[in-house]
Design a protein that fits this description.
Length: about 180
Amino acid sequence: MAGDMLSIAGSALELTPLAPVGGIINAAGLAISAVGDFLKHITERGMIADEKRELMLQAGVPEDVARALADPNANAAELQELGLSPEQVQEVVRAYPDLISIGNYFTAFTEGAQALGVPPENFKAFVDALVGQFGNEFEAGSILNTIREQEQFRTDRPPDVERALREYLEAVVPEAAALAA
């Protein structure tokens, strides 16, 4: 609000012989307003996440799962879009709480599972197989993401990310490929 008031004062001065000073004051007011809006957004985002977490806790969702699902960066909706039940989502989140928050890596896992035709009930076992092969979810996600990106930038033929992921996983992680429907 202070930024808005300063900006208005600057605008008023722009109508007088002190117009250059008014322009500077107006710009300063706009900058203060922008910073204030940004801080307000961050605060509201945190409050919404806290409210979501509290509602999940009241519904009986375990604390660690509620915290991960309430994270504003969480991709839990994508797990449900894959067809996982709420219980299966909780199982994945409990085992890999950071997985749903790591953006492109998470997408690489979901695309890998889809490329192989892994049914929803086997998604956690799919992640387990990849983590077993590569050591942790971050390394596995990085490898899958690299395959996705390399395929997307191919120039010798049209890219086929699904085929590239499927062929790689079948060759390198046969345990994951065996989970396909």
